[in-house]
Amino acid sequence: MLDILFFSGLVLYFISVITHFLSLAFRNEKISKAAWPVFYAGFALNLAYMIARGIVAGRLPLANQFEFATAFAWCIGLLAILLHRRTREAWLGALTSAAAFLILSFAALQPRTVSELMPALRSAWFSFHIGSAVLSYSSFMISACVSLRYMMLDKKPETEPGSLGRLDYLSYRMIAFGFLMLTVTILTGAIWAEQAWSAFWTWDPKETWALITWLIYAAYLHLRLQKKWQGKRMAIYSLIGIVCVLFTFIGVNVLFTGLHSYK
Amino acid sequence: MKKILPFLRSMRFGMLLLLPVLVCSVIGSVIPQGESESYYAETFPGAYHMILGMGLDRLFSGWVFLTLTALFSVNLALCSVSQLRAVSARRAAAAKRAETAELLPLSASSAEKLSGYLRRRGWKRQGEGERAVWLSPALSWFGSVITHFALLGVILGAAGIFALSSTADYEILPGENELPDGTVLRLEDFRIADAEGKTDYVSTLEVISPDGRASGIREISVNHPLRFGANKYYQQTYGVAGALDVRVAATGEVRPLYLTEQSLITAGGADGVWYFSVYPGYITDENGVRKVVGHSGGDMADPAYYIVRLSGGAQEPMIVLPGESVETADAVYEFKSPRYFPGIRVKTTSVGIYALLYASFALLTAGLYLCFFAPVAAAAVGKDGYAVVSRKGEQELKERFAAVL
Ligand code: HEM
């Protein structure tokens, strides 16, 4: 039953990606109108799955890479929906639904067994630490989608003058929010580690890469505010940033072992 | 000095330092840190001489990284001070820009509305002229300053922990355990799982500090350390100890013992028992001879002791089960069920460093919130128009004002 919920959500995200791209390719209003409801349905199933899994497990479903990726996909969906309600941008659905679909597909490749929470994870800090990490990764992802859109429009002569500026600013705002959330992730992680293992920081690969990601985005903020870097450069920067985020999320678990490797 | 100081506090210098910090971090994540020499020889056969020679196995406590961090702290401190000193000049400059900015049209009633909105949002009105200038809430001007000072606090707190705090791990057996500093840990109980079988690793113990103060009986478990005096006690690991009572024949005295390693136990000095280990299980072969299986540690399903009895100069290897006794001329050794015992980590740090770190964490979060969600801005509101200037999010503020109007 749980699996049916999960895979139905995945399939709906996939259909939504296809319909969003078709509507953009054919500039067809009707297809476009269908794409968002499909995305909403996928999003609702994604949420229903997380709730059902949380009930079965008797805890927040954020305790392993599968659960994190499922929440990550859902949070991308949430931010995309909120942004779409504000901006009504047609392209937004195509890129963000693709991102949510890819992350949920990654989740589908992970083991889905519901396991008991190990004692170190039973902490009040758990929800703050993982919840803020999901929010931060998702907003960096949305920023990358916005930046990708920027790159697509950058060279087009028919681009409306103000729209590039709006995209640039939106990408910055998503990074600012993501940076705040990543800071909360790192700080709550440090407090939690000190309570569980006695050290705030152990240079575990996950911690180190979270710090690398954080420093990279800190440099972004400074280059933007102090050096007035904007536009294409910052769009490229944001795309490099998301590679770093995904490495922190996936690469570190695959390549290194440590406290966070779920092993 | 006139040239060096501006460089030392410049962002260029900060960025220059950031690059090697990033490189160190990447290297430190690829090469596992703090392992033994033989680990590096096995894992990186072609490169371990270089790794050990250059200190890449302890990169984050090596002089290169520490120097970079120290220089970064100097840069951050100077930069934070200059940001603090620039706050009032920035406010004045923003007010001036708002005063001279081109106005967007506004009716008199809308001007009232906008002024009311700004007042409610904590903006401060400057002067009484025709064109009133409003500055964003006082705290917003300190967002960046708070962020940078808080970061400095985090780095200083980390340095304090690095230099002043120490940790040591101890095996704590039932009864009183004296630590090197004279503190006594009295273990009442240790359990691996609760009544429903859910693993939770809980030690019930009392801490008695060298000056005689006692904590009272307390429980510690993973995520729930105990702070008492200058120390913090953590439930860290656990192990299995062999348990036996030694009944001394001459005096009738009974002494309980818990053993975690090979030991010679003797009452009179000649006869006794060599204790080797406790095993999780045993089998009895067709000749009725017991053989231990597995190794000690893990789940103690069917425990068995491997010992050698020393009696009258003879040595007799034996496998003894809990509940059984071994006798020599001067004592009886009564073996009991093995006991799980906790490994407790004791950490010593000053409370001041904790306070600095936690305050810096809170201020860092608050500072970032101010930076991103309370941008510095100035607005001018006149009878027939308004303007808003901000280095960040000016467009967003204009939209927000338009929504109010
Ligand atoms: C990793 C360390 C650092 C972090 C996380 C950090 C964080 C920040 C943040 C979040 C902002 C506000 C950005 C925005 O609102 O868009 C900022 C601004 C700024 N930072 Fe840093 N910073 C760091 C190091 C430094 C250093 C070392 C310097 C000086 C050399 C510096 C100088 C500045 C300046 C001058 C501003 C602009 C302030 C303003 O105009 O309001 N920062 N920083």
Task: Describe this protein's structure.
The complex is a heterodimer of chains A (263) and B (405). With 263 residues, chain A is mainly α. Chain A folds into two domains: 1-116; 126-263. Helix content of chain A is 79%, strand content 0%. Chain A has eight helices and no strands. In chain A, helix 1 (2-26) packs antiparallel against helix 2 and helix 4 (90-108) crosses helix 5. Chain B is of the alpha+beta class and 405 residues long. Among the domains of chain B are: 101-136 and 375-405, TATA-Binding Protein (2-Layer Sandwich), CATH 3.30.310; 165-239 and 344-356, no CATH class; 240-339, no CATH class. In chain B, strands 4, 9, 10, 11, 18 and 19 form a six-stranded antiparallel sheet that branches. Chain B has a five-stranded antiparallel sheet with strand order 1-21-20-3-2, sandwiched between helices. A four-stranded antiparallel sheet of chain B has the order 5-6-7-8, with no helix packed on it. In chain B, strand 16 (304-311) and strand 17 form a beta hairpin. The longest helix of chain B has 38 residues, at 63-100. Chain B is elongated. The mean pLDDT of chain B is 92. At the A-B interface, helix 6 and helix 7 of A face helix 2, strand 7, strand 10 and helix 8 of B. Protoporphyrin IX containing FE sits between chains B (10-11, 14, 75-76, 79, 83, 144, 147-148, 151, 368, 371-372, 392) and A (176, 215, 218, 221-222, 225-226).
List keywords for this structure.
heterodimer; A: 263 residues; mainly alpha; 2 domains; 0% strand; flat; B: 405 residues; alpha+beta; TATA-Binding Protein; 6-stranded antiparallel sheet; 5-stranded antiparallel sheet; 21 strands; elongated; binds protoporphyrin IX containing FE
